[in-house]
Amino acid sequence: MRLIILFLSIVILSSQKSQAWGFYAHQRINRLSVFSLPPEMIGFFKYHIDFMTENAVNPDKRRYAVLGEAEKHFIDLDAYGDSAVHKLPRYWQQALEQYSEAELRSKGIGPWNVYHTKILLTEAMKRKDPKAILRLAADLGHYIGDMHVPLHTTKNYNGQLTNQYGIHGFWESRIPELLSEDYDFFVGKADYLRSPQIEIWNTLAHTHAALDSVLSFEKTISTRFPEDKKYTFEERGGINTRQYSREFTLAYHQALGGQVERQMRRAVKMVADFWYTAWIDAGQPDLDGLIQNKLDFDPEKFDRDEKLKIREHEDGTLAEVSNFSKRQRLLRIGHYFDFRSFGFYSSSSIGLPAISLTFGCSIHKPIGRKTKRKNSPA
Ligand SMILES: [Zn+2]
């Protein structure tokens, strides 16, 4: 039902611009990984470190534009039953012998995709193709980063099955953005991985083992914080948004014993290890010889394909980042507002008293009614 409402008052809640690790954390991971590379590699990657940083988030933008991208960022291990992380086939071809491709894709292909991307990077290095090397190394850094986020290993990816809605953005965006300035990111030199595919699965097992504390500590800490202490309001892009409070964030961080920092450090190290391994496997090409003043990259298009049904663990955000300014502009002129990723957080559903924004807009769903999210994978 389409309603036209002129002066509508709503609370805008946000779990920040969160996609997998959040833009901020992905960018830091890619950037920091460069410093663990050996002398033969570091010149080339340092020269292009801004590219590596900025493009660390391309795969997340691509999720909404390219069919087949979304499932590369996660794997719902619990959808396969107990101890799946120890039992699932390590190699894609083996997996296809046990499961249909459709089933595998619907439950996420994260670890297999890491290995596939590593092979593509190795090939690009063999070809000495600087643009492909940079693009694929940036992508690989992103995918490896995702495999370090416990909520990327479960169908309960945003706490939606345990009444902890929004925990995804909290863990991977809010915490790093608030606290990671103080993290220790010295991870040492990159190591060669004899079996990168086995290594990514071992990492996944480690990541998945952390899931229980991600969820249970949030529940425990929440009992100590009334709603008005658990959340705070901050202005973002001229809009008042609801965030987890700094106090709650710190309490959670401490209860987890610095888990987010540890996972970020592990990600930085593993990204460097994979880049280094690709380079060794390619026969150690001379990367310094590939340094060029200017590389003309064809800009990647991230136009949203509305037909793609993508799981949105950044629910609660106004809109996905690549579309953010456009939607915000439309919002400001009182023309349009997309409630599909917002309804769950409508003020009545969580009993929030505040009215923080007044503007004219047209909405696509009545306010105050919970909009059920799809729990099924993208
Ligand atoms: Zn991702």
From TrEMBL:
Source species, domain of life: Bacteria
InterPro entries from the UniProt entry: PLipase_C/P1_nuclease_dom_sf
Molecular function per GO: hydrolase activity, acting on ester bonds
Protein's UniProt name: S1/P1 Nuclease
